[in-house]
Sequence to fold (461 residues):
Amino acid sequence: MPSKQNIPAKSQEHRKRKKAERKNLTDTFVRNSKAGALRIDVKDEHCRGFTLRISTNGTKSFAYMGRDFAGKTRTVTIGRYPDVSVKEAREAAFEIRRGLKDPKQAYAATTPSNCSSEITVKQLVEECEPILCGRGKKIWAPRGKKSDRSTARMVIECVFHELLGRPAISLTSEEVTKVVHAYVPKSGKATANGQASRALSYLRTVFNWASGRGKEFKKLGACRAERLDLADLYEIADPAELDPKITGKRERLLSPKEMQRVLPHLILGDLGEGGLLDVDLRPIAMRFILLTLSRRSEVEVLTWEQIDLETRTWTREVKAKEEIKTVTHPLSDAAVALIVTLPGFRNRRPGKLVFPNRAGGVLGNWDRACDVIKAQSETKDWHRHDLRRSAATILSKFGVSEAIVDTLLSHNNAFSSGNTSAAASAYILLSTQMNGLPDPLRDAVNLLAAILQKLENREIG
Fold:
């Protein structure tokens, strides 16, 4: 029999973990437990198989370690402490133990697609996608009938393609950091353009769901049934915030000459590729952004029930800073005329998108559409969000007050600065609700539409 000195180091470490004593696992005990030179496993004396695991860096997590119906040893990760309380983890351990004793449940829980130690990043994203979509997160909805992938999944797969085949539990924050900060978009641009930042944000959501982290996923039932002990991606800095070439606010505006060149191309485009639509709605959607001073994200999810043609208004949810609020803004005559010419107007239904892609899903590939319009109009270096900024600047140049412009932009509090009365917002809201009163917001959007028409006709500029 080999002496202890001849036993490999890993085997010695394995034996030391197996000799862990049983304790009454309580929040006080777990909170006060310290890390050691080797990983520590502490068994619960009340629930067989329920185990506290303390890594050498002090990370504490819960797992179920026991045998299934066939006598095979299984280790199922439950989640990290304190994201998962002792009570929640013990309840989960009871359920896991009960499931492993059932041949059907045990088989389903340990097949390669579900086994904690085997599930890949790609499989985890695919598992999480329909759940987030079902909770109303439209960025996780399929992009159309010809593609079952959501925008969020596509962005993750684009940026993290080299990590998709890796087991999710083996991935470290350092490895993710290395990939996200080394990412260079297909355009070849060396600076962060938002793609890496969005991919990191979407992957964080997946990892939080699978781990049961954060307020949204912390409770049992809101997260993955079998929680995984995954890296905390909130440790990773946003690459866009660290980009030294991104300084201050973007101030790009389209000049009158550029606007004259661009406007004739913001119309229904011809795709000629079949599908539900034979037209490209991205160019005309950009005209709608220009007419309404709205954000691209708001136009992407615009549905027909948000538009009231009788009052000529658009009611939607907007995000200003950390606040989500509902706003109702008037539509100019030009914006209404644009809407009624859309291919989907005749068969409009609640829930259907006003500006869908040709398969009926959310519009995408905006950069490609912008590039085509730039080439056609012989302009360059502008972004679709610059249309919104340019529209706001036009109104300001023609004497519309800062408060009115900020209201149309749906900023957090349009009346918190400037020389405006505290009651101004109430009067403006009242005027939009009562016939016969002046409506400065409607006047402003109609003025904007008239100016854009004159620019397109080359009557000014």
User: Anything to note?
Assistant: The radius of gyration is 28 Å. The CA atoms of residues 152 and 202 lie 6 Å apart.
